Fold this sequence. Notes:
Elements: H1 2-11, E1 33-41, E2 45-52, E3 58-65, H2 66-72, H3 75-85, E4 96-101, E5 105-110, H4 118-125, H5 130-149, E6 152-153, E7 162-164, E8 170-172, E9 179-180, H6 199-205, H7 215-230, H8 243-252, H9 263-272, H10 284-289, H11 298-302, H12 334-340, H13 342-351, H14 356-364, E10 368-369
Antiparallel strand pairs: 1-2, 2-3, 3-5, 4-5, 4-10, 6-9, 7-8
Helix pairs in contact: 5-7, 6-8, 12-13
Amino acid sequence: MGGRMGVVRRGSDVTSHVSSSGKSGAAPCLQHFSIIRSIGRGAFGKVCIVQERKTKKYFALKYMNKRRCIEKGVAANVIRELTLLSKISHPFIVNLWYTFQDPDYMYMVSDLLLGGDLRYHLSQQGKFAEDRAKLYLCEICLAVEYLHEMKIVHRDIKPENILLDEQGHAHLTDLNLATQLADDQLATSYSGTRPYMAPEIYATYLELEDGYDSRVDWWALGVCYYEMLRGRTPFEFSSRTKPEEAYVAFRDASIPYPAHWPTDLIHFINTMLKFDKEKRLVGLEAIKKHAYTERIDFKSVFERKPAPVFIPCKEGLNCDPMYELEERILVSTPIHRRRTNHNNSSGRSSSEPQNAALVEVSKAFIDFSRHNMKIEPNGVFRSN
């Protein structure tokens, strides 16, 4: 097992392939990849490290059972996420490379980041040094600004959705709850993870407001930054906290700050977490002008020139040890069987009657190859 991981580390620096512009041949499919090991699992999908046979590059492969997605009511979210990811490319976003499907499963091939998510590192270290957290903040600011330029609201920015690469740079992931809004359009769904949801999301749910816009992402990022530095969120909620109680807490409660925090830092976070969204610090240009961040060269940050203070451990997966158990049973997982017995499996699946929802999901699924995107020299893709 250790030898395999050593090959992964030496074969690719994980993110070096993002500027590749080579053309792929046949449409991607499962047989084009070698399965290395499993690294995570959820209610309706699993994630594996895979190696593309032709290029020898390593990726993360997420595969999701269509029927289970339909049963869980998340099929539309998966299709929406694929649609959004097929339009974007950014150095601080976990980018999509390929998608393909078979009668039973949907597959997403993405950048492989082995540095762990910020939730894992917070659980291990309690909190981060300010200079370390500040680089994460700036890198994710660039990612959020790019998404907003594409009219995409992430809606679920939290430590679990910020991954580190092996050099220690931060990348935003998981657009499962994201939505794309037209100009002057408002989102109305009660979406997100409660400790990171902005007041106007609760207000919309409580019918106090007509909807919300991209400013909710800057609130969530402010919550994340406070948590990175303090080891806890600025507003504490339990599983029993009602939306109306959370809304009142945002409106009336004051945020506790350690006495040793500098005034410019406190003002920065206070402004990111303004209950009144009209007074909130939103947008990269506004952040650049704030006293706390005005000396930061964001162009240099975009070019990955500042060296991260923290370098993730290169031994192991930087994740919950439970995922390590997946390695022992990988050969019995559905993806392994589908790779080794593809023809027979496909034959059985295609002969089964498919319900209308399954057919609709298969039709809506996007077959995607990143090699067909027009990517600017700086690594950013912008659609017309």
